[in-house]
Amino acid sequence: IAVIATVVAFLQFLALVATFWVMVLNGRRQLRAYVFVDHGSFELSTDKNRLFIRGLVRVKNYGQTPGYELVICTRMDIFDTKSPSFNEDYMGLGKSVIGPGSERDITVNKGPIDEADLVAIRAGTKSIFIWGRIDYIDAFKKKRYLKFYNKNGREILVPGVTLSGSWPIYQADKPYDGN
């Protein structure tokens, strides 16, 4: 009977250790920073009769702790709609902290663009592509990243009119875990 009691006690100890470990992992998952792209927009502007496209990407920390050493790299270009060629060379400048619930607006400009590109965008043969990567370290010192991308639809771009919130930005990888 003493042997059986010892084996049962040992198994209960293992169950207790496993339960504790699951609680620690769940606590970290609930507390860590979750940095995602909230939404974005495009705006067509003119300067000295030249056309420019400005892209806005809003980044938000949905987590309960800060994201440290935050680096955001965003690119925008005009490609053929069916064959984009994203440059995966990401190099952000500077590091910062994004607090819980905080948002950052990242602006990227393309231009000057010519009228032929604008006509092709409106016709749907070319699209404005915006993509990038977010790197940060969570409160538990784990490096995290998120790649994102999007392209415009066939909106009619009008100078000075912002297409805000009209398109989501999709996670390019790890959509099941976010980041």
Keywords:
single chain, 179 residues, alpha+beta, 5-stranded antiparallel sheet, 4-stranded antiparallel sheet, 2 helices, 9 strands, 46% strand, disordered C terminus
Model description:
- There is one protein chain.
- The protein has 179 residues and is α+β, with helices and mostly antiparallel strands.
- Helix content is 22%, strand content 46%.
- It has helices spanning 2-31, 115-123; strands at residues 35-47, 50-61, 67-80, 96-98, 103-113, 126-137, 143-151, 162-167, 170-171.
- The strands form 2 sheets. It has a 5-stranded antiparallel beta sheet.
- The longest helix is centred in the first third of the chain and has 30 residues, at 2-31.
- The chain is elongated.
Averaged pLDDT? 78
Estimate what percentage of residues fall within beta strands: over 45%
Give the SSE order as H and E letters.
HEEEEEHEEEE
Biggest sheet, spatial arrangement of strands: 4-3-6-7-9
Task: Kindly name the structural category.
Answer: alpha+beta
Rg, Å, rounded: 23 Å
Strand runs, count: 9
| Overall geometric form | elongated
Tally of helical runs:
2
What percentage of residues falls in helices of 4 or more residues?
10-25%
Largest sheet: 5 strands, antiparallel
Catalogue the unreliable spans: 158-172, 174-179
How far apart lie the N and C ends? 51 Å
